[in-house]
Design a protein that fits this description.
The chain has about 550 residues and is an all-beta fold. Strand 21 and strand 22 form a beta hairpin. The chain is globular.
């Protein structure tokens, strides 16, 4: 991922299901055997995208019988989610490697903004020698940070701050526990870290990308059968690999893995970036992502074989990345993962890891347990500048978010509701002015290419609020790749019968914001702080 003052790449314009694989079965009668056979046939293959939510710049590893992958989050906090799976197909969000974006006041929406900055392509690794997970990534082209935890749920702690900028880094834990980092844009380098990971021992450029290829970045670093490999992406339509038989510092030989390959998502891009992982049985898979805006970048999974001389070969279906493949052969999962959709009643004092704030929150202005209470944290007429907006990824290809909102503690000037949030946004919610509360649909919230607000919104429709102090709000989103996909809004006084409000909102599909649309819960003041709302239920559902 590259800003304009760095090397040319695609990024220069910027500067589901839960479930358990078939396992051991108890004795079955004929009817149950028939149902089991149907279930097992379905479980014998998986669809792509394997996760239809926005998880990009993936790094993927296996530790024992468990698979983990990480992703970019940019300005969302906490950052760098860690997903977990037991079968490579069904995934849950387990935690975040970066608990807070404490990299400057702009990530607090205090005197600046961190939109499209923050956590970019980074790396996740496990070090058997000390039983520790490592996350490594550079922030703002200023420094590289190393976080560690003994469990992916956390607590994650900052282990080291390195003065070197390891751009698009891949972290390798070698057989002897030595830490190496592959990084760079076009000029690819390898660094060796000190045993404690707190400093650099040496660094050396190991490859210069030929002009005929253009840009290579997104390093992933592996040691396989004694050979060293650096897996690289040509954004946003190719994947290449470097191989060294002489050690981590090369020399390296280049080979193309894919270029302009038709992807598995209709209207989406070429699968690229991401990483390689080996199952317990020795099979290899490549998890890439597919540009699929307005929804974002969706992970796709495909099997890989190896040539006799040690080069990976992607397994295609009719010359393309398959829309489905046979499911990986893995041991019976120990449990069913937590689905990425479903209901949250905010019954614990800690938010579930599927939630991420837009920038860092003001923790004095929210609480959870018996619902989510959002007290106004910012006086502004600009949702993009308001703190404590809580976001949730949208499930593709289409899904609906419904919230139950208690609003009796709102004050004059407050705005609260449910948004479709990106650089062009819309929302349904409540606005209280002059002692009167109305339900409104607002669109026209926009930012320019420098992520400065150019539109704070226009009320497109409004209605009287039913009595009782409680309202259900709903947003539906079609995030299939393409232009003018609709978002629609509605409300209800009983949670059963919903009334459409306002015109359909056209979701923007420009890639330059990188992150896809999200559902967002918000409450901000336009006059004075002191008001609050309580979200007692959130549901993400699919047709």
């Amino acid at each position: 991922m590259t800003y304009t003052h760095h090397s040319v790449s695609r990024r220069t314009a910027l500067a589901v299901t839960g479930g358990m694989a078939a396992g051991a079965l108890s004795p079955l009668g004929p009817a149950n055997r028939a149902r089991a056979a149907t279930r097992d046939a379905a479980a014998a293959s998986y669809p792509n995208p394997v996760i239809w939510q926005d998880f990009a710049d993936i790094d993927i590893i296996r530790v024992g019988g468990t698979y983990y992958c990480s992703a970019s989050t940019m300005h969302y906090s906490p950052g760098a989610p860690v997903l977990r799976s037991y079968d490579l197909v069904n995934w849950e969000i387990a935690g975040h490697s970066v608990p807070v974006l404490d990299f400057g006041s702009k990530y607090d929406l205090n005197g600046g903004r961190g939109y499209v900055r923050g956590v970019w392509a980074s790396s996740l690794a496990y070090r058997p020698g000390n039983g520790t997970f490592y996350w490594l990534g550079q922030i703002d082209f200023a420094q590289t940070y190393l976080y560690t935890a003994t469990s992916v749920e956390g607590p994650w702690k900052r282990h080291a701050t390195l003065s070197q900028v390891y751009y698009d880094a891949g972290l390798l834990v070698d057989d002897d526990d030595t830490l190496y980092v592959a990084y760079g844009n076009s000029a690819i380098s390898v660094a060796q870290l000190s045993p404690d990971g707190r400093s650099q021992v040496r660094s050396q450029q190991v490859f210069s990308t030929p002009s005929s290829i253009g840009t290579l970045e997104g390093s992933r670093f592996y040691k396989i059968n004694g050979n060293y490999y650096i897996f690289l992406t040509r954004p946003a339509n190719g994947q290449y690999i470097l191989k060294s038989t002489s050690g981590p510092f090369g020399p390296y030989t280049l080979r193309q893995v894919l270029l302009n390959l038709p992807g598995p998502v209709q209207g989406g891009g070429v699968p690229h970036q991401g990483g390689l992982v080996r199952t317990q049985a020795g099979a290899w898979y490549y998890m890439a992502f597919v540009d699929a805006y307005p929804g974002g970048r969706m992970p796709a999974l495909a099997p890989v074989t190896w040539t006799a001389d040690g080069w990976p070969v992607l397994q295609l279906v009719n010359g393309a990345w398959g829309t489905s493949y046979p499911s990986p052969v893995v041991p019976t999962p120990p449990r069913q993962v937590t689905p990425l959709t479903g209901v949250d009643t905010f019954d614990g004092t800690v938010l579930k890891p599927k939630w991420e704030w837009n920038h860092n929150p003001d923790n004095s202005k929210w609480s959870a347990g018996d619902g989510l209470t959002l007290r106004t944290a910012t006086v502004t007429n600009d949702l993009y500048g308001a703190r404590n907006t809580l976001t949730h990824r949208i499930q593709g290809p289409t899904s609906t978010a419904t919230i139950q909102l208690e609003h009796s503690a709102m004050r004059d000037g407050d705005r609260a509701g449910l948004a479709l949030l990106r650089d062009s946004s819309a929302w349904i919610g409540l606005q209280r002015d002059g002692g009167v509360t109305r339900v409104v649909m607002v669109d026209g919230l926009t930012m320019d290419g420098n992520w400065k607000t150019t539109g704070t919104g226009t009320v497109r429709a409004s209605a009287s609020v039913p009595s009782g102090g409680r309202l259900w709000l709903r947003a539906g989103a079609d995030i299939r790749p393409g232009a003018s996909r609709p978002g629609v809004f509605s409300y209800s006084s009983d949670g059963v019968t919903f009334t459409r409000l306002g015109p359909a909102f056209s979701l923007g599909n420009d890639w330059r914001f990188f992150m896809g649309y999200r559902f967002a819960l918000f409450n901000h003041a336009t006059q004075a702080l002191g008001g609050s709302v309580r979200v007692t239920r959130f549901e993400l559902s699919t047709p």
